Batch of 2 targets.
Target 1
Amino acid sequence: MKASKTAHPSLSMNKILEIGCGEGFNTFILSRNNYAIGIDISEENLKIAAKRYPEIMFIRMDSEALAFNADEFDEIHAMDVLEHVDNLEEVLSEIQRVLKQSGQVIANIPYWKSEAWLSKVRPTYRQEIHHVRIFQEDELEDKLKLCKFKVINKYKAGFLSHIEFFFMLKRNIKSDTQLGIGNWRDNYATAVLHITLLFFNPAVLRTPLRFFPIWLVTLPIGLVIDFFGNKYFPKSVSYKFVLQ
């Protein structure tokens, strides 16, 4: 295991583990007021993360065998990860083991209707990005209940992002990795589409596009569309669980 340098956590900080940290941005956000550690199976991702955020600890580790003590973390984040793991029960058992009593798990998974539609748009979609399972309605909740977790928050999101996914998946690019399937930066058309959709997303306020006040008109429209769209056809479901 190779880790970047990190400061020792203070007693007032929550200790957070992010499983499947990718290139480290979310771990960086989590570390602002907490002590956060990111793990990932990809050596390439970890090299990028360690270079960008050298003050944070990033470790190559399999989520099926977490090399941490029992009751070590206050929070565990698994964002768009659980659909990738080969042995889900083992991962959930490990999460339960290393989480403190009353600790929280924040997880995000693709919505089953979205996964079914995207597989029709691109039949090789799930194989290319290694989605080994589609979580059916309430399936993750039921599995975590068996591990003594209780749902304290749940919401569906991402309806408008289907537009961008549709155009990325229609391209004739064969991929062996999730990132290889496409990115909005790939060409002019996808960049324009991504920027246009940002004006309908609250995320626009965290970008330089906030200086273009067109979002005063487009953002309310996007919020209304997403509100109704997410009731029936969200891209993903986000959860917060607490260990009882």
Target 2
Amino acid sequence: MLGRFPLSLLLLMNDSRYPWFVLVPQRSDIREIFQLPEIDRQHLLKESCTLAEALTATYAPDKLNVAAIGNLVPQLHLHHVVRYRTDAVWPAPVWGKLPAIPYGEQGLAVLRQRMRDLGMAEFLPQD
């Protein structure tokens, strides 16, 4: 777990090829956004937009992919994947194409600091 929003856990996919984050609303037995109560839908959209704005400001992507796929993991979760026309699998989806390259301790520390620098500190645990 990278951090926590009021509704969702903030996870990081451990593949340094793509800055790839996942929001997981902490509600049981929810598979689809429409199953959330209206107030939770609003919170999820706000959290997703907050994350998307921070990622865009940090990474300046050619495209930020935001998707609720969930074919293998049924719990509702939203992927936020930073994409560039120069990345290894552009324009194909990132999942399942290439073996992951883990961040390592230094890479994770840099990523966390970038997120703090963009006002995300309240959502990240203290080191």
